[in-house]
Amino acid sequence: MKAIERQVYRAAYQDGLLETFLGGYLFIFGSLMVAKPGMASFSALTVFVIRPLFTKVKNRYTYPRVGYVKLPQENESAGKEIGLTAILFIVILVASLIVLSALMGNESGKEFWFRWFLPVLASILFSFGPLWMGRTYGLKRAYFIAVLIPLLGISMAITGIFTGYAAVGVICLTGGFLSLVSGVIMFSRFLRKYPVEEEVLNVSGQ
Amino acid sequence: MSLDNKKDKGIQSVIQIDRLVHEPARMLIMAILLSVENADFLFLLKQTGLTRGNLSSHLSKLETAGYVSITKEFVDKIPRTLLTATDGGSDAFENYRRRMIGILENC
Predict the structure, then answer these.
(1) Nearest-CA distance from A66 to chain B in Å?
(2) Phi and psi (nearest 5°) for B85?
């Protein structure tokens, strides 16, 4: 049953649209973080556009080719787990800033936090999304992105090329770009591999 | 009860297995439908690799037995036929699975 479940999940997301949309969102978020960190939270508003657009594209391109499937609700609880972990990480980030500032003094504590804590912890946090995708949908390429993002965060902290919010922005931009490119390639392959089929159901032999 | 008697009972339960679920194509259809909330005909067609006629015939049998329910809806004016495993179908599959495990353990 587990093997069948996994196959069904893979089949449902073989079009690469989830990666494309998630990558697109991360790209927007990352761009805002680099340009204007204060505006980054507004990127959450794009969910109101992305979600219906995602459904529309699925209806238009995916379902006529490989059919429609609604996955069980259990998956949403896995999404909630990720959400809670994200909140926990944000709490850790804020708490670490307060603790470091208290221990090292306001200035050097903040500097240490922006140079080391923020890029590394943010990169770990952003790797949870692809990790969840890899675990739930069996996407190997998502694991690759999940490993690459923390490595990027660590290398940024060591080299100091980007620090603070700019580092978070670059991490999101890179992760988003990779996901977007991988998604678009998957989608174009999917369109070529599966032509549109007309659903014919004649269950009762009519 | 002696060990041999127990084994005999296990062997005899082979003839009590649900033949409707036992057929490989229908077993696969049920397994797929039980791992999702619902799916349409085309999705099952792609996943099972059966022909349209074959899949229709198996679905018809499963629907008659009350293991699968078929509903129709319209999405953007396009008809979509949704197939869902019923509670009865879920129970039947679970019973079949348990019985088969029991039989194989006794072999």
Answers:
(1) 6
(2) -75, 130
Number of domains in chain B: 1
What backbone torsions phi and psi does residue A49 show, to the nearest 5 degrees?
-95, -45
- Give residue A175's pLDDT: 87
**What is the pTM for the complete model shown?**
0.75
Find the chain B residues whose C-beta atoms sit closer than 8 A to any C-beta of A. 28, 31-32, 34-47, 52-53, 56, 59-60, 63, 70, 75-76, 78-82
Q: What is the extent of the structural domain holding B79? A: 3-105
**What CATH number is given to the structural domain containing B97?**
1.10.10.10
Q: Do the Cβ atoms of B39 and A70 come within 8 Å? A: yes
Angstrom distance (rounded) from CA A35 to CA A166:
8
What are the structure tokens assigned to B86, written together? 């019923």
- Alpha-carbon distance A98 to A92, whole Å? 10
Task: Print burial letters for A113-126: b (CB count within 10 Å at least 16), e (below 16).
Answer: bbbbbbbbbbbbbb
Contact B60 A204 (CB under 8 A): yes
More confident residue, A37 or A28: A28
**Location of structure tokens 């944000």:** A90
Residue-level pLDDT at B4: 53
| CB nearest to A199's CB, from B37, B38, B41 | B41
**Which ipTM did the prediction report?**
0.82
Which residues are bridge partners to B83 per DSSP?
B39, B70
Residue A46, pLDDT score: 77
